[in-house]
Amino acid sequence: MDGTARRTILSDRMYYVSAITVDLIARRIYYCDSRLDYIETAKYDGSDRQIVLTGSGYIPHPQGLATFENLVYWTDWTKLGVLAVSKFKGSESIMNVHVTKEDPSFPMGVAIYHPLKQIQPGRCLRNPVF
């Protein structure tokens, strides 16, 4: 992670990527663009790009991003809260996880803490045990 031998895996159809997260189980990256209003996913090498959610009506200003099980969570500056969507069903499955309309501050990031998200001693990520 010192920048040696780095390479670009994605560069087009992006304007302002505001967050990125890794789904270790599915071996995919998820990222959001707060200018183009979308959440997208791709394999580690940048192939197989898929839109998870798009459109300013659904995702007006995504900021933080996290994944767990079948959901993608994000914070949104316009909706002032944490929202979630299915990785597979897109706009059909949007849900408010926590909305803080009364609070003058707004969430910047989101993180998932769960034993399944932690690397277990003796577990190799190249050969995960399920």
Structure write-up:
With 130 residues, this protein is mainly beta. It contains no helices and 8 strands. A 4-stranded antiparallel sheet has the order 1-2-3-4, with no helix packed on it. It is globular and about 45 Å long.
Q: What structural category do the secondary elements indicate?
A: mainly beta
- Choose one word for the global shape: globular
* H/E element order: EEEEEEEE
Strand content: 35-45%
Average the pLDDT over all residues and give the rounded result: 83
Number-wise, the strands total 8
* Low-pLDDT stretches: none
Q: In which order are the strands of the major sheet placed?
A: 1-2-3-4
Number of helical stretches of at least 4 residues: 0
* Radius of gyration over C-alpha positions, nearest whole angstrom: 15 Å
Compile the SSE list and pairings.
Elements: E1 17-23, E2 28-33, E3 38-43, E4 50-54, E5 62-68, E6 71-76, E7 81-86, E8 95-99
Antiparallel strand pairs: 1-2, 2-3, 3-4, 5-6, 6-7, 7-8
Features:
globular, 130 residues, single chain, 4-stranded antiparallel sheet, mainly beta, 8 strands
Quick overview of this protein structure:
By secondary structure, this protein is mainly beta. The chain has strands at residues 17-23, 28-33, 38-43, 50-54, 62-68, 71-76, 81-86, 95-99.
